[in-house]
Each structure stands twice: as C-alpha cells, then as structure tokens.
Amino acid sequence: MQHQQVEERLDVLTRTGHKTGVSKPRGDVHRDGDYHRAVHVWIFAESTQELLLQRRASCKDSWPDLWDISSAGHISAGDSSLTTARRELEEELGITLPKDAFEWIFVFLQDVLNDGKFINNEFNDVYLVTTLDPIPLEAFTLQVRMSKMFSNLTYWISLRNIIHYVYSIMGLAFMETEVSAVKYISYEEYKRLLAKEDSDYVPFDVNGQYGKLFDIIEKRYKENTVARSFTLQKQISRYAPISLSTEVVIFIFICFWFLCCINLYLYLV
User: Fold this and answer.
1) Do 201 and 240 belong together in one domain?
2) Do residues 132 and 42 both lie within one domain?
3) At a CB cut-off of 8 Å and minimum separation 6, what does 232 contact?
4) Which residues pair with 50 in a beta bridge?
5) Fewest 10 Å CB contacts: which of 11, 13, 49, 192?
6) Which residues contact 8 (CB under 8 A, 6 or more apart)?
7) In the structure, what pLDDT confidence band is assigned to residue 144 with cuts at 50, 70 and 90?
8) Is 7 helix (H, G, I), strand (E, B) or coil?
9) Which residues pair with 125 in a beta bridge?
C-alpha cells in the first residue's frame, strides 16, 4: 500500500484564543478561516542592533521570495508554544538553543486573506532571542525539502548535505528550499522599510500591534545603556580619590603622632 503523507493538524481556537477541543488539518483551517496558533521567533544581536531575517523560498504558498521573521511556524495540535519555537528555529536555521534563550514578549493577532488562497486568522506568540554579538551567518544550515511531486517522500536536510544528496539521487530539478537565505539588518532600517511597505519584505504594521517589537527593543537598549553606564560609574568610584573632612584628617594625624611617640619611647627604653 502506498504511504500517504499525514497533513499537520492544528488546534482550532475561539475568537478570544481559547482552544475549542477540535483539531483540523492545516489546509482545512486556512480554507475555513479558523483561528489557530503559531510562533514568531526574532533573533536580535545587541552589539550591532540588528535583527536576523530569513528569505522565504519561491515554493512557499504565502509571501514567496520575501524577507521575513527569523523563524516562524504553526503550533501543531497538542504542542506547546515554546516547544514549537525551539523546533522551528532548529528545523529552519539549524541551530539549537536552550529554553531560557527564548523570551516571550507578546501575542500578535494576524488576520490576512492571502490573495484569496486562504484565510489566516492566527494568534502568534512572539519570542525574542537576544545575543550579545551576531551569530555568524555560516553557522546557519537552511531548511530544504523535496518538491510536491515527491510529497509522500518528504525529507529535511541541511545545506551542507545538498551536494552529496544531489549526486546520490541525480535529481537536482526537484529540490526545493524552505528558506533561501538569511541576513542581518539594523532594526531601525527594518522598521523604516516596513513603514514604507517595501515590496521585498513580508508586511507588518509597525504602527499597529507589531510595533511592540521595535518599542521593546528600543526601550531595552536604552535601559541597558544606562545600566552599563551606571555599573561603569560604580567601578570607577571604587578607585577614585576619597574626600575626607578636616576633623577626620586631624584625628588621623593625632593618632599617627601618638603612635610615633610610643614607638620612640619604646626604642629609647
């Protein structure tokens, strides 16, 4: 009997984001406009003030070839939000991070009618992963899969294995990437591009709910700058000259003089 690929099932939610107890195939959820959950994971490098973006592959059914969130994906029926966030980052970019690296910052309700193809009523748990320095781009291995003509034989492999894989099966034509590229961009520049609705980027309303992401980053950076400055001031003050009152100076001098007298007496005796 031919193996049939099982379509991912999603929990159907109410308009307020609560589970209904019903799950449906992903395609049916999008067809019927059911509310469901997903995760958005943003990687932010503090030292350079940059966000990591991924470029969606041309085979994607929504926003093909556009620059998008660092990593994102649906929360499968029965799965938790954090588990999904970690899994998507590992599957799409090839990096594994501990749970405490993922900071949940807010929920974003997205309601999009994507070119009439499907209705996306989605509650997105937005996570921020903050690193001190940018993760080197060469550290990422991007997600690749077989095309739809081989949908019953779906595989996920890293870019480092593509060449060996292609040579072994001699079928370059049916390889499709889920993520075609990654890059870093200044969060301020990215916000500006979204505000002007640049056609190379998946649209997000920076003046609406999604503006929280940029507000949080900006506020935190300023707070961190102040905190670092305060810490530095404390360190400097530990080595700064100490100012003593006149009374204290006189007292110290008298004590020193008295000790000298005692030492002289003991020497003479």
Assistant:
1) no
2) yes
3) none
4) 45, 186
5) 192
6) 25, 26, 74, 76
7) low
8) coil
9) 39, 107
Sign of the dihedral through C-alpha 180, 185, 191, 194: negative
Statement to judge: residues 192 and 229 lie in one domain: no
Token pair belonging to 268 = 């003479």
Query: Do 171 and 244 fall into the same domain?
Result: no
Domain annotation covers residue 1: no
Q: What is the pLDDT of residues 119-137, one digit of tens each?
A: 889 999 999 999 989 999 9
pTM score, whole prediction: 0.71
CATH of the domain at 158: 3.90.79.10
Residues 82 and 212 in one domain: yes
Q: What is the mean predicted confidence (pLDDT) over 219-241? A: 57
Amino acid at 104: W
| pLDDT for residue 261 | 73
Task: Report CA Rg, the chain.
Answer: 29
Per the structure, the complete domain to which residue 251 belongs is given by: 223-264
Residues 71 and 95: beta-carbon distance below 8 Å: no
Q: Is 168 exposed, middle or buried (0-12, 13-18, 19+ CB in 10 A)?
A: exposed
Domain count, the chain: 2
Tell me how far apart the alpha carbons of residues 89 and 2 are, in angstroms, rounded to a whole number: 32
Cα–Cα dist 225/33, whole Å: 44
Q: Which residue has the higher pLDDT, 83 or 233?
A: 83
Q: Are residues 201 and 148 located together in one domain of the fold?
A: yes
Which H/E stretch holds residue 251? helix 246-268
Residues 246 and 174 in one domain: no
Taking the alpha carbons at both ends of the chain, their separation in whole angstroms is 113
**Mean pLDDT taken over the chain:** 79
